[in-house]
Specification:
Layout: H1 29-34, H2 49-60, H3 64-76, H4 78-106, H5 110-118, H6 123-152, H7 158-172, H8 177-204, H9 230-251, H10 253-256, H11 264-293, H12 301-309, H13 311-344, H14 354-366, H15 373-401, H16 420-437, H17 443-447, H18 449-468, H19 470-477, E1 491-493, E2 500-502, E3 506-509, E4 515-518, H20 519-523
Antiparallel strand pairs: 1-2, 3-4
Helix pairs in contact: 2-8, 2-11, 2-13, 3-4, 3-9, 3-11, 4-9, 4-11, 5-6, 6-7, 6-13, 6-14, 7-14, 8-12, 8-13, 9-15, 12-13, 15-16, 15-18, 16-18, 18-19
């Protein structure tokens, strides 16, 4: 590596590092299930910005959003929570615009991005945590449906209701974006009609338990008379960002990565509207209103729906949870797919992971696990803040400093096992943030623990890079400088698997006779011991010698 310079990569077209083509999407039932979970999405498997945004809207209807808004109001008061929503709008809007542009440009999601930031194996930690948190959200949404059903069918054991609900979800989670887009379209209008009926019912007095007469100045609601202060505002903001905001900044990339590259600015704007205004403000505020309409007694919107609409309200609960849980299953199994591929060096179909995913979710629902959700969400906020901060810090500060390419390398052959700049910037702020959350340094640090982790994680990468120097910093991003094939076609055929993929997916492999193999073949090779990073690669095949 000493006789090769990272700046030479800038002399080549971006098409050598990711697929820049805009093509008509090809039909392939196998890919509809797999959705390129462990490699970049090629140009012939992209969707319109509208289809991608429409699919992501499924999470906006999840009851967890208004439920959390109501619960935070009980803890901090509506004024503090509403101000927190406004702060979250700014933070999420900035973050999701940047991540959406990058994701749609490169056809890359959160899991592959993390490989460049934390190293090939280092990224497994953040990806695993995201996957587990999505199982928790899946179980939370499932428990809401089961609880509503139990009100109408009290004679059926709770665990059996949960089992029946999950059995319905499994076939709905097999297919990827193609199916999700169709499902969200079919259920969106049912959701809108249901929500409109709920508001009509509240203002028309259909229920004595949930009535607009209770919700006069709902934005001032403060059932527990909590004094408004900077600590309650920061605490409410941190809790909201921790539960949803930080995760959505990167979780949304699993959808935007499938957007046509020519529409990357459009999807970035759509995602800002959805995640910044709708998710971070509108839906949360709706939860506060529902709480106020119950005279500050009931924070669960699902119960409000049933109070106002009866059996129709139960149907609305099912529709909202169906839309959200299909996305939870999709995003969660993508995360587990990447972790398993990294650890086991085997390739799995994403849909196969649904069974262990829902089994884990079932255990969480029927056990006492969800009773600790508020505590889990608090610590999750620290982790997600460190994840976002370290990723943005290394991308915005370290890469420009040493002219490291802005695109994310994910191929095993070219990455170190651990990128110590990114990985340290993730772990240390998490540790400090958890201690702050536990009150080790007092109430002020406890309230602002999420933002302490965010700031530290953002600054750490550039500090570490300055300490390491240019050469050692570059080695954290590239264990071996990528070779670039000289081919006239946009695609190549893998020497090992015989699969044809875009040329940017291939690596030069000395273990396989200095032939070009796909990133999938490289990731699943168990016998090579990464010899390509130990010995020099001979130039017996066409390689651009300027690199």
């Amino acid at each position: 590596m000493a006789n090769r310079d990272i700046k030479d990569l800038a002399n080549h077209s971006e098409s050598y590092f990711y697929d820049t083509r805009d093509l008509e999407r090809r039909m392939d039932s196998g890919r509809e299930k797999d959705d390129y979970g462990t490699r970049r999405v090629p140009g012939d498997w992209r969707f319109s910005a509208w289809s991608s945004a429409w699919s992501w809207m499924g999470l906006s209807t999840a009851i967890a959003y208004p439920l959390t808004g109501a619960l935070l109001t009980l803890a901090f008061g509506a004024v503090s929570v509403m101000i927190g929503f406004l702060i979250s709008m700014v933070l999420v809007g900035f973050g999701v615009y940047y991540s959406s542009l990058k994701s749609a440009d490169e056809g890359i999601g959160k899991d592959l991005m993390s490989r460049s930031s934390y190293g090939y194996f280092g990224s497994a930690l953040s990806t695993l945590f995201v996957g587990i948190y999505l199982v928790i959200l899946f179980s939370l949404e499932t428990s809401v449906i089961a609880g509503s059903l139990a009100e109408f069918l009290p004679s059926i054991p709770y665990w059996l209701l949960v089992l029946l609900i999950i059995a319905i979800f499994i076939p709905l989670g097999i297919y990827g974006m193609v199916w999700i887009a169709k499902l969200q379209t079919a259920t969106f209008f049912l959701y809108v009609i249901g929500i409109v009926l709920v508001f009509i019912g509240i203002f028309s007095g259909w229920s004595e338990l949930s009535n607009a007469a209770f919700a006069g100045e709902w934005w001032r609601l403060n059932p527990n008379n909590v004094p408004t202060s900077w600590m309650t505002i920061i605490g409410a903001t941190g809790a909201w960002m921790g539960a949803f905001g930080f995760m959505n900044i990167f979780a949304s990339t699993d959808i935007t990565r499938m957007t046509r590259r020519s529409e990357r600015k459009k999807i970035a704007v759509f995602q800002v509207i959805i995640n910044s205004f709708i998710n971070s403000f509108l839906i949360g505020a709706m939860g506060i209103f529902f709480l106020a309409s119950s005279n500050g007694v009931n924070p669960d919107p699902g119960v409000t729906f049933v109070w106002v609409l009866g059996p129709v309200g139960l149907l609305l609960v099912f529709v909202t949870q169906l839309r959200g849980n299909v996305m939870n299953m999709y995003l969660g199994t993508l995360a587990f797919d990447n972790v398993l591929a990294q650890i086991s060096k085997k390739s799995y179909m994403r849909s196969w992971l649904l069974i262990p995913f829902v089994i884990l979710g079932f255990i969480m629902v029927v056990s006492s696990f969800l009773q600790y959700f508020s505590t889990i969400a608090t610590f999750a906020g620290v982790v997600f803040a460190s994840w976002v901060g370290s990723t943005f810090g290394e991308s915005m500060l370290v890469r420009p400093l040493y002219k490291i390419p802005k695109w994310s390398e994910f191929r095993r052959a070219y990455l170190p096992n651990i990128n110590w700049i990114g990985f340290t910037s993730l772990i240390v702020p998490i540790f400090i943030g958890i201690l702050a959350t536990m009150g080790v340094w007092g109430d002020a640090f406890m309230a602002s623990s999420v933002f302490v982790s965010l700031l530290l994680a953002f600054i750490f990468p550039v500090v570490l890079a300055l300490v390491l120097g240019k050469e050692r910093t570059i080695q954290q991003y590239f264990k071996r400088i990528p070779e670039i094939p000289i081919v006239e076609t946009e695609t190549m055929t893998c020497f090992v698997t015989g699969e044809t993929e875009h040329k940017s997916d291939f690596v030069l492999c000395p273990f396989h006779g200095d032939n070009w193999i796909s990133s999938k073949a490289c990731a699943t090779e168990t016998k090579c011991n990464k010899v390509c990073q130990i010995n020099s690669v001979t130039n017996t095949v066409p390689v651009d010698q300027s690199v």
